[in-house]
């Protein structure tokens, strides 16, 4: 028989979560699940359980997923070269087709299935469904040291969200369904845009007036040059980390997303390690938050 003290300790864990449940009931949390974080099958299932638990306690979780490494493997199988500029994949027409196939097909449905297994009801969509995310070509600029100025770089069919029509998400919420969104946008002429999943999650979080944006990745959070976790960041901190080269690659769009989100009404954005089982629950429902919190 389990001893009474350990039973009480279990109940204490639930009681610790109570004020958070009361505070967050009815609020929308956007959770971005990165392609790197997905690689651990046990963490993938525990992620689905966390999302179902959020829904069960009255929070509205909206999942936006990535799949960069998985797109990379598929392109490799097809013998297509892929290149990144500041964490963004240069996307020609063929690459856009592959990105849509991998994101909206394989990955999206896998997450939907996991949420189903965990006892929830998820609906997998992309930014094309219900014209959820209208996009245009991203005009990207990169600093050219020789010229000492920012120069335009053509990234092909990389999109930036220009408008979010939240109607479909609202319908799904009313129906008790959890939206799972692939980061594909639609152009005015029906073209397919490959959108960085962090950017997509940030745009959706701002449009929904989400209370929190969580970005799940494969590091503990933002690390300083010594590899130590930075637990709290403000917009000036982020500008400094970018200027002194502490952040690079995929962390650049991630922190830009956090900045945009908190400057556009999202209360806080958190970067956390999605390889840790139940990372989302630990962050939301315990006193010891994990990861890097960005606030204005
Ligand atoms: N200062 C930093 N702290 C943490 N990670 C960083 C930093 N600078 C660059 N990175 C890189 O950013 C990566 C996370 O971005 P990304 O690979 O796009 O992840 P995801 O697929 O989850 O979106 C980390 O794995 C790490 O290699
Ligand atoms: C424009 C751009 O870079 N799009 C990304 C979309 C997927 C993504 O962002 O996935 P992660 O979150 O796993 O990195 C790509 O093609 O890889």
TrEMBL record:
<dbReference type="InterPro" id="IPR001048">
    <property type="entry name" value="Asp/Glu/Uridylate_kinase"/>
</dbReference>
<dbReference type="InterPro" id="IPR001057">
    <property type="entry name" value="Glu/AcGlu_kinase"/>
</dbReference>
<keyword id="KW-0547">Nucleotide-binding</keyword>
<keyword id="KW-0028">Amino-acid biosynthesis</keyword>
<keyword id="KW-0808">Transferase</keyword>
<feature type="binding site">
    <location>
        <position position="194"/>
    </location>
    <ligand>
        <name>substrate</name>
    </ligand>
</feature>
<keyword id="KW-0963">Cytoplasm</keyword>
<comment type="similarity">
    <text>Belongs to the acetylglutamate kinase family. ArgB subfamily.</text>
</comment>
<dbReference type="Pfam" id="PF00696">
    <property type="entry name" value="AA_kinase"/>
</dbReference>
<comment type="pathway">
    <text>Amino-acid biosynthesis; L-arginine biosynthesis; N(2)-acetyl-L-ornithine from L-glutamate: step 2/4.</text>
</comment>
<feature type="binding site">
    <location>
        <begin position="67"/>
        <end position="68"/>
    </location>
    <ligand>
        <name>substrate</name>
    </ligand>
</feature>
<feature type="site" description="Transition state stabilizer">
    <location>
        <position position="254"/>
    </location>
</feature>
<feature type="site" description="Transition state stabilizer">
    <location>
        <position position="32"/>
    </location>
</feature>
<dbReference type="InterPro" id="IPR041727">
    <property type="entry name" value="NAGK-C"/>
</dbReference>
<dbReference type="InterPro" id="IPR004662">
    <property type="entry name" value="AcgluKinase_fam"/>
</dbReference>
<keyword id="KW-0067">ATP-binding</keyword>
<dbReference type="GO" id="GO:0042450">
    <property type="term" value="P:L-arginine biosynthetic process via ornithine"/>
</dbReference>
<dbReference type="GO" id="GO:0005737">
    <property type="term" value="C:cytoplasm"/>
</dbReference>
<feature type="domain" description="Aspartate/glutamate/uridylate kinase">
    <location>
        <begin position="28"/>
        <end position="272"/>
    </location>
</feature>
<keyword id="KW-0055">Arginine biosynthesis</keyword>
<feature type="binding site">
    <location>
        <position position="89"/>
    </location>
    <ligand>
        <name>substrate</name>
    </ligand>
</feature>
<dbReference type="InterPro" id="IPR036393">
    <property type="entry name" value="AceGlu_kinase-like_sf"/>
</dbReference>
<comment type="function">
    <text>Catalyzes the ATP-dependent phosphorylation of N-acetyl-L-glutamate.</text>
</comment>
<dbReference type="InterPro" id="IPR037528">
    <property type="entry name" value="ArgB"/>
</dbReference>
<keyword id="KW-0418">Kinase</keyword>
<protein>
    <recommendedName>
        <fullName>Acetylglutamate kinase</fullName>
        <ecNumber>2.7.2.8</ecNumber>
    </recommendedName>
</protein>
<dbReference type="GO" id="GO:0005524">
    <property type="term" value="F:ATP binding"/>
</dbReference>
<dbReference type="GO" id="GO:0003991">
    <property type="term" value="F:acetylglutamate kinase activity"/>
</dbReference>
């Amino acid at each position: 028989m389990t001893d009474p003290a350990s039973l009480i300790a279990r109940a204490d864990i639930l009681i610790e979560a109570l004020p958070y449940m009361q505070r967050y009931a009815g609020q929308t949390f956007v959770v971005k699940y990165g392609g790197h974080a997905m690689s651990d099958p046990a963490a993938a299932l525990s992620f689905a359980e966390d999302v179902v638990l959020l829904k069960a306690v009255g929070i509205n979780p909206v999942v936006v997923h990535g799949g960069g490494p998985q797109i990379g493997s598929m392109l490799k199988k097809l013998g297509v070269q892929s290149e990144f500029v500041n964490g963004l994949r240069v996307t020609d027409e063929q690459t856009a087709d592959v990105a849509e196939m991998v994101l909206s097909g394989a990955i999206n449905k896998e997450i939907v299935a996991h949420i189903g297994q965990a006892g929830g009801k998820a609906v997998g969509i992309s930014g094309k469904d219900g014209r959820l995310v209208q996009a245009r070509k991203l005009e990207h600029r990169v600093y050219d040291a020789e010229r000492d100025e920012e120069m335009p770089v053509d990234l092909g069919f990389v999109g930036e969200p220009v408008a979010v029509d939240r109607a479909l998400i609202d319908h799904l919420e009313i129906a008790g369904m959890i939206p799972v969104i692939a980061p594909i946008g639609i152009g005015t002429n029906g073209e397919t845009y490959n959108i960085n999943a962090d950017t997509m999650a940030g745009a959706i979080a701002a449009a929904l007036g989400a209370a929190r944006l969580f970005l799940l990745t494969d590091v503990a959070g933002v690390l300083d040059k010594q590899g130590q976790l930075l637990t709290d960041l403000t917009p000036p901190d982020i500008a400094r980390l970018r200027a002194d080269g502490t952040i690079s690659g995929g962390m650049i769009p991630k922190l830009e997303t956090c900045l945009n989100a908190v400057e556009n009404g999202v209360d806080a954005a958190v970067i956390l390690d999605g390889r840790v089982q139940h990372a989302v629950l630990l962050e939301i429902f315990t006193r010891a938050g994990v990861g890097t919190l960005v606030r204005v």
